[in-house]
Fold this sequence. Notes:
Layout lengths: L8 H33 L5 E15 L8 E12 L2 E5 L12 H9 L6 E6 L7 E2 L6 H4 L2 H22 L7
Antiparallel strand pairs: 1-2, 1-4, 2-3, 4-5
Amino acid sequence: MSNAPQSTIPARFFLGGVGLFLLILGLSFTWWLYGAGEKSMISRHWTPVPCTVLVSGVTEAQYSPNDPVRWQPELEYRYTFAGAVYHGTKLRRIEGPTPHRAKAMAAAAAYPVGKETECFVNPQNPAEAVLEHSTKAAFYTLWFPLLFAAGGAGMLFAAVRQSSKKAPVIS
């Protein structure tokens, strides 16, 4: 005769529900991070061409009186692709203002006016170009939501496995 407590049906449903929730949550965030990583990789397949920096500075923006001041590097560069001259303004494909003035200043300082550098041009749309590739950090963090998915799958498996075991008959 075993004195080990038997799990109840509500407890198994709770364990299975939490496991299913964690599994779905982990897989959803993994899918989202993978999509963000794929977007960051797009410009890595673009054609590198020489370009010249024409404008380099920092713009300040405050969208409302209660909003914090944000800064963004303001860049303009000229490049030639397939015999046509284009002007680009993007540092990276996905960018936005930062609350850190020093960060925006450093980005602009890396591209002083007159600098001859390399930009990456979209061959399908030559008017689209960037000076730098976006970070691949999303790929480096994929493991974290997968831990939640694995834990949820383990909980779900434990809940299902418990329900399939026959409870001993105590007479």
